[in-house]
Amino acid sequence: MRISAVADAIAGPATLKLNEKANQLKADGKPVIHLGSGEPKAPVPQAATDAARVKLDSAVVRYSPTSGSPDLKKEVVEYTRRNYRYECSPANVLISSGAKPAIFFALYSVVQPGDEVVFPAPYWVSYPEMARMLGGVPVVVAPEPGTFEPSFESFAAAVTDRTRAMIINSPNNPSGHVYSAALIKDLVRLCEERDICLIMDDIYHKLVFDGREAPSAFDFARRTGEDSVIVAVNGVSKLYAMTGFRIGWAVASKRMINVMKNVQAQILSCPSSLAEAAALGALEGDQGCVESLRSTLQANRDVMVGELSKIPGVKLNAPGGTFYSLPDFSAIDANSHRLCEFLVEKVMVVTVPGKDFGAEGHLRFSYCGSAREIIEGVERVRWALDPNGPRQITIGSTTFTRDW
Ligand SMILES: Cc1ncc(COP(=O)(O)O)c(C=O)c1O
């Protein structure tokens, strides 16, 4: 059987190989520390599990309407008003099976073969692959040296007559960077003037630190309602630690939502009504869980930044949100895949190579685990990379002996 060249060229997840190795080490009883993870470790909010239980006990778990349950869409309208000060109606909402398909369906709705999709580096690994799956051309905008933010001029220079979509993820996976209000404002203007669909991937938008907020594209929009070019994507995966429920959504013009709905109808039929019940429970329930997760992550961020700063040669821009940091290891090893493999092999610490995010020379360190994991994990890395360190060391309850 012949595999399609487009499908065959799609990259697998960056973490796959490293995870396989880490799982093998774990299965062998080895003390692996996983700093590569992409999901919060908090429990699912009680209101979500209660709501899911009620739905399950009803023994009626059928197809939802294609664009999602009316109750959840209404709650998303409320969420959008509360968090974005943006008025919309259920007809502006598509509930999907996670933020990921919502992004893909938005791209599918505007990108034709040869069209360009613009986004800044470092970027979430799925953006270039999604663009390619549609026959589109990913166009990456490089950040200003030593920062994670490109200039507006670089974006403007990347836009051509073939640009159909721009994707901004703020705060950003993998860097934790929160893009400036000035940049977001200028990008909204650019997309409005050039009729470019602006996909705001806001999946981490409340996980922002130090009393800041992630600037919202809606605050700067001149084109609103049916004229809006913004597709705001969000979901319960990260804010409510509900990655396994697979519920996300998009807010956009009715016309755009209608097209996305038809795409979704042919691929997913609808989101899971059981998972929708849980998501509704989370959104209607006590929101203290989001703040509690945010403040835990901020404390973890401080620990991570402190520990990474002890590694000579490593440069880091402190993350303003998310649960990721993206230190620059290029002074030690400019090849991030080689360095990641070395760290798993020698000290059993899992990180993610920056190359896959368009940031070669960097490694992504997650801080969604415990402070102990962060401290021990980074101490192992520091020792492994220190040519003058002791030949043998005990970190936590594990003893390592240098054989390199
Ligand atoms: C930037 C970004 N967008 C979207 C997603 C996907 O979210 P979901 O799990 O709701 O599909 C992720 C998950 O890692 C992400 O990091």
Strand order of the largest sheet: 2-8-7-6-5-3-4
What is the H level of CATH, i.e. the homologous superfamily of the largest domain?
Answer: Type I PLP-dependent aspartate aminotransferase-like (Major domain)
Structural category is alpha/beta
**Computed Rg:** 22 Å
Instruction: Give the SSE order as H and E letters.
Output: HHEHHEHEHEHEHEEEHHHEHEEEHEE
Beta strand count: 14
Query: Would you identify the CATH architecture of the largest domain?
Result: 3-Layer(aba) Sandwich
Care to give the gist of this entry?
This protein has 404 residues and is of the alpha/beta class. The chain is 39% helix and 14% strand. The protein has 2 domains: 5-43 and 288-401, Alpha-Beta Complex (Aspartate Aminotransferase, domain 1); 46-284, Type I PLP-dependent aspartate aminotransferase-like (Major domain) (Aspartate Aminotransferase, domain 2), CATH 3.40.640.
